[in-house]
Amino acid sequence: MSTILAFPVALPLAGAAFVAFTDGWLPDRVKELPAIAIAAATTVISTIILVRTERMTLVHWFGGWEPRHGLALGIGFVAEPLGAGMATLAAALVTASLVFSWRYMTEAPRLYRVLMLVFLAGMSGFALSGDLFNMFVWFELMGVAAYALAGYAVERLGPIQGALNFAITNTVAALFILFGIALLYGATGALNLAQIGRTLGGHSVDGLVVVAFTLLIAGLLVKSAAVPFHFWLADAYAVAPAPVCAVFAGAMSEVGLFGIARLYWTVFDGPIGPHVGAVRDVLLAVGIATAIVAAVMAFLQRHLKRLLAYTVISHVGIALCGIALLDATALGGAANLVLSHGFIKAGLFLACGVLLREFRGLDELALRGRGRALPLLGALWLLAAVGLVGFPYVGSFLGHSLVDDAAIEHAHRWLPATLMVATGVSGGAILRAGARIFLGWGPRDDPLLREEPPEEVPEETASMPAMLAITTGVIAIGVGFSLIPGLEDRSEHAADRFRDQHTYVDRTLFGKVRTYGPSAPVVIHRATPASIGYGLGAGLIAAATAGFGLYRRRLPAGTRQAGRRWLEPSVDGLRALHTGVVGDYVMWITVGTAVIGGIWALTLVS
Amino acid sequence: MSYLPYALAGWIFVVGLYGVVSSRNLIHLAVCLTVMQSGTYVLLLAIGYKNGAAAPIFRPSHHPAVDPVVQALTLTDIVVSVTVVALILALALAAHKESGSVNPEEIADFSG
Predict the structure, then answer these.
(1) CB count, 10 Å around CB of A441?
(2) Residue of B73, B98, B104 lying closest to A156 (CB–CB)
(3) ipTM more than 0.85?
(4) Whether B66 contacts chain A with CB within 8 A
(5) Where does the pLDDT of residue A459 fall: very low under 50, low under 70, confident under 90, or very high at 90 and above?
(6) Listed range (A83-87, A148-152, A237-241, A455-459) with the worst mean pLDDT
(7) Which residues pair with A59 in a beta bridge?
(8) For residue B15, what is the enclosing H or E element?
(9) A185 to chain B, minimum CA–CA distance in Å?
(10) Cβ neighbours for B93, distance < 8 A, ≥ 6 positions apart
């Protein structure tokens, strides 16, 4: 019965071996099919798990090693709605990417398909596992597959640099996590999340718990790419093939955020709960810095994938704010943001793949006006930008409005306005690129935007209609998320369950099944006037940002000079920090971890 | 047991981290990563160590043994690190082929 929980990892792993083995034998025309079928089957199974978790939390102990007297020796998977939702999102995006890359990847396509399946297994395992060390192993498996995928075009320097920076920073992050795990094991003698949480729950916070907490959270912040741990992401996403970027942006960054939420509520909520304010303030500060810095960096890019990469970081910051409020409504909002952003951003990266196939380049200025030949893609691009901004009842609006509501409830009235500016600026960057490419607006050159190396161009054999259809489907799903009836109640309910450590421990360690009542009413979320206001405001800021990017030459000369004098030093400084050299990135990771740990050491230890 | 093994684990970890930050050679950098990783091995083994205990081979005798779990974790850890280091070295090789250099500063194609 609970064996189904093993399939989201067993199926893609076995499938990867199957694809690697049979690929040489199959005729060319059907070679893509097994991988697509395996990914699609994984999506179906993850969806079945998701539907089943609505009634109760599912637990599976591998090899039948069930816990006795609350002591877990075996490794267990625990599926509740948010984790199962994460696994479903990952599987759906991998399926879409594999279909999209039909004849798109011509260099060593077999390795590509195998790596995508292993990558999927890693993400699903991380989302479902209930064991800390097991989570680390999935994290590394996901990482290794992702490094190889990022450096796929290994005969050019850009992808090598991106993959190396990605691999080294994320390996350092994994070692931080491992160090934290070892400390927690030393303190509690347990690796099962529920058991660690239960053991720590009775104690007050000591130095050891703070160090372990800091190392684990910092490691996961590297994976989810929060400022100042974010530097690797733009390098890696700018060079990875477009369909790989779609999965990176839609699922991998979010997996890191999911890990933070999972660890906080299953392990650390007990001991740290009394000092929750310090955790909230630090994570909020990191989230806001991420949202703003990355939005500004996105505005300074002309390479489309690099531009989108920075908007991914910005949205990670916003979702991190949702988690940081440590509240059920905000966590439900963050889950919704992850879902809608995941699909929309994946769709935008796929759109980049279409542009690359059609125009052999991804440079915003070089593509100016050429997108007129693809009106459908242009419409999708603009729709996606509006969906990301959180315009009322489009795309990520539901998530934004839940986070806003929770922030106002916690007397953080300044937070929604700050997030509004961040989404406005990052959405404005996407709008500007779309208006320039698909409508031919704005000048041909822009001294603010620096040229980056050219892109790897896919083969002509890739089928345009299929690529367009998949892109349309993925963006349409993402844009429709705010209109799904009943989603708001379900996500809040799921977030409530996610935060309920007591029931989690009872279910995992003692097998006490708790069933949840009939589903919440199926109605469309009715937003508060405040959040509609913030959504409209973000839309206005996005339009203004795009207009500024395209037509700032029409401003009066005095205004421009004053603006240049004030803004240029900070813009140049911000740019200069993104050196592309991995040692600098690791230094930022170290400094960030030390600062966060220092603050928590001063505020958490009682 | 003394605090020495823990201090040593932390020292190795931080020394490796310093190497990763300051390295100007990708091969050297990959070795620094394995040094960091060695810090985690020492930490894990120190946590499971008991004075006077034998290796965790459980025969019918009731002799005290060190914690076998951390040894299993260390083994898994080694396997994982070998994969990652192999990949980084392969990428370093590719970088050298493309640019003739393994200095991270000289292969920085993208920035800003």
Answers:
(1) 17
(2) B98
(3) yes
(4) no
(5) low
(6) A455-459
(7) A78
(8) helix B4-22
(9) 8
(10) none
